[in-house]
Amino acid sequence: MEDLNKTQVVERLNQLLINYQVHYQNLRLFHWNVKGPFFFILHEKFEELYNEAALKIDEVAERILALDGTPKGSLKNILANANVESHAEVMEANKMVASIVDANKTLIGNVNELLKEANEVGDEGTLDIFTSYIQELQKQNWMLKSFLN
């Protein structure tokens, strides 16, 4: 893969990394601050989700490094470039769940753009790693939407 092509994939990976980092922080806040009749269910679920997100963040950053890029993880880069909304510490539980659905939609869009770019430049490694992300995020959204309805 040519350097220019790597750069384009790395840019998409960095956008995914930035959005996952905001998503992770929201999940931590939700875990800490959830209240109400579904506290035990959501407290545990949010912990599961932020642990999964932490693994994804590491995997994305490592793929960036494997492509000779630099992971964009500074707060400055995150604040300037995030497409996932950063939420306040206190929210109603159903709004927390709905915001996760919205964040997942953004992440799915990021992964779709990444996969399109990786496919165009023949980056089989990136395609192999990130194809499953869409399935996982779609399944999460189905379950979270079912909780809300």
How would you sum up this structure in a few lines?
This protein is an all-alpha fold and about 150 residues long. About 80% of the residues lie in helices and about 0% in strands.
Describe the fold and architecture:
By secondary structure, this protein is an all-alpha fold. The protein is built from 5 helices and no strands. Helix 1 (3-33) packs antiparallel against helix 2, helix 1 runs antiparallel to helix 4 and helix 4 (93-121) runs antiparallel to helix 5. The model has no long low-confidence stretch (mean pLDDT 96).
**Mind telling me the C-alpha Rg?**
16 Å
What's the number of extended β-strand segments? 0
Low-confidence stretches: none
Overall mean pLDDT: 96
With helices defined by DSSP (H or I, 4 residues minimum), what is the helix count?
5
Structural class: mainly alpha
Taking the alpha carbons of the first and last residues, their distance comes to 46 Å
> What is the beta-strand fraction?
under 5%
Q: Report helical residue fraction.
A: over 70%
| SSE sequence, one letter per element | HHHHH
Shape: elongated
Report the biggest beta sheet as strand number plus sense, adding barrel if it closes: none
